[in-house]
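Example 5.3 — Knr4/Smi1-like domain-containing protein
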Amino acid sequence: MGIHPDVAVLLDLVPADFAGGEQIDWAAAEVALGTRLPSDYKALLDTYGVGDIGELVILPPLPSDVRGWEGCHIGGMTDGLRGLWEDRAGIPDVTLGAEAVLPWGSGMNANEMAWLNNDPDPDKWPVIAWRRHHLWGESPWALFDCNMVQFITRMMLGQFDACPLGDASLWKRTDTFVSWREQHRRLRAGLDPATGEPNPYAHMYPITEDWP
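Solution (predicted structure tokens):
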């Protein structure tokens, strides 16, 4: 079976040089979450593993075994994001309740990304985003008629009418994927977890066996 076509496009922009190598049990993950998951999302994690693209955190379905990241996963972020949907009344003209919101991404100056479960087929779920910064009088929520991998690549290629998030760090630009495993290795080696460059302040905050 070949690679998912949308992930192939992303690979041209963001190489998987620092992939994590996880082998996720998707059947078990979907049972735990109580829902099927989109094929592009599963293909992205099968290709890259668990990690970040720049400041964009791609949430795994279940807790990671990388120390310090145990609470950062779809199951752990769902209640909080659904609370944001309820507090801000969701997207205008979308009548679905908070139970239709399922997160897949976070970070980038406190922006949150999710799917809107509006179809029995998860491959048809559009992306929704909660933007920390938005125009006055505008809803913090926005809907994008594309899957999550397409959302990422279209943001990097500037293929939306405007930056889709309240942060422009991946708007019309790319960044490096670094797995959480590689980030942890770099931290323990006194390196910057994002760039791999020497961290001049590493000696001030030594990483021990008990950290974090």
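Remark. The chain has a mean pLDDT of 90.
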